Every structure is written in structure tokens, then in C-alpha cells.
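Hi U.,

Before I forget, here's the chain from the pilot set. I'm dumping it here mostly so it's searchable later in email.
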Amino acid sequence: ALGRERLTGVGNYVKNLIFWLAQSKDLELEYLWKLSRLNNRMPITSHIGQRNRPYLPLYDDWRMRNRIFHGPDFKILAKSAAKRIVTVHDLFVFDGRFQNEQFAQNGRENFSRMMAESPDHIITVSQFTKNEIYKYFPDYRGKISVTHLGADHLLREPSAQPSLGSAFESLDFLPTKPFFLFFGSVELRKNPLGVLKAFARLAQKYSEVQLLIVGQKGWGADDIEVEIQALQCKNRIHWLNFASYSDLALLMRSCLGCVYPSFYEGFGLPVLEAQHLGAPVLTSRGGALEEVAGR
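Structure:
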């Protein structure tokens, strides 16, 4: 989750979990990563901000007696003397929609294999995800706790004052004009095609309104780009692959509203981030999004 410079949802969760756990004087913490992540050790070290090292199976399995191992990204140790806790963010691979079937099958197999290792406890980020586990793995009733995510990280980034300057020079985007904001991984699961359809209707009525998309390309991004190019209002739709937390915070404070009508989310962090900064949110009903945004 931390093996890249630009983090996505789970990576942000891990980074901020480490930050807050490190504030406790009562915990003795050690940060381990798999040897298979050796080539990614530089971004991992940068995000952790603490001393870390590779996991050494026989040595660490022996040392972990009377300790707790936490896998923050769907993974636990196969065998260990430690108590093993795992965080499960979603069960999207069991849903079957809006994803490559081979990817989904591999994900289901990996997740089922992890559950077969009998984690001592499971953390989910929403009641919805907890219920999803019960649906597919009913034997885990009584072994799952819900810990919702937070959004204060948007105000904690040690960076220069946000300006919406250089990051937007390549776009014909004017933040002084009214705009709607869609941010997060841009993939079919998050319903960007629905956003484009709604924006096309809105653009016929309001000549200055813009749509700004901020996020890396995910599954189905080619279809999304084709749809944009087919719209008459395509010159008012702008796509930026990345924005810093500080720029995102300014965008959320400046937009007409954040649009996030996703079909499936284990939590839906962009909704909470937007609400945290006072931005109006347009999202979908049901699942974790209704839980996060409120009824």
C-alpha cells in the first residue's frame, strides 16, 4: 500500500494510522515489510517516517511471542506466535461488477486464503464491510470490529501554501469559474460515466460551469476518455492525474460540490474528506456511502 510515491485510499489509511500510533508513548511499534517489496523500500520509508526493515520469517516469527501483528491491507502472517489482526477495507472482488474477471478471481482466492489462516480479529472500516464479511464468511461473527476512518490528514500536510498554480497550467481550467469536483481513482466502479452524463445535461443550461476530475486512471479509464471526447461540452471537462492534499483541500473549499456517486465502496473516503472541509456532496444511496454521508 505504501510502495508508490502517490498514495491511493488504502495507502493513505496506512500512512495516517502509522502517524497516530506513533503519537502513543504506551506502544512499542515495529514496522516490517515483505522482502518482495525490496525495490519499493524508498517510498515505503518515506511514507512511514520511522525506522523500518524487511520481515524475516523464522527470526520474526520467534520474536513475536506476546506481541500483536497488524496487517493494515488485507494480509496477515500465515503462521506466527503473535496475535494477528487484519484490516479489511472492502470485499469488492466478491461483487463481480466493474472489474476484470481474472483480477476478481485472484482477489477472491487471496482473500479466502487469508481468512483460512484464522486471524484472531478483523477490523473493518464500515458496518457495510462488516456485513459483507458475514455474508461470505459467517463463521467470523463476534470477531469483527468497525473503526471508521477520519479526514484530518487533509489539514496536516507539511507543504507550501496551496495556490492552484503550476499543477493546473497544462489545463484550460479556471478555478475562478464555477466547477464541480470528482476526485479519487477514476474507474467504472465509481460511476464517472454517470457523472459525465449528468454534467452534459447541466452544461446545456449553464454556460460557465466546469467539471474537474482529479485521480489516477483505473479499470475502464479508456472508456471514460472516449465518452469525454464524444461530449459537446468536452472543453469544460478537465482531468488532472494528481493533486496534493493542500491543493485538494483548496479545490474542495472552492467547488460548487463534490460528486461521488460510486456503485460500490467499502467506505468512500472522498465523501468524508469533502464534508470535513465543508463542501456540498452529491453521492449515491446504500452501502457504505450512506453510512458515511448520513441519511
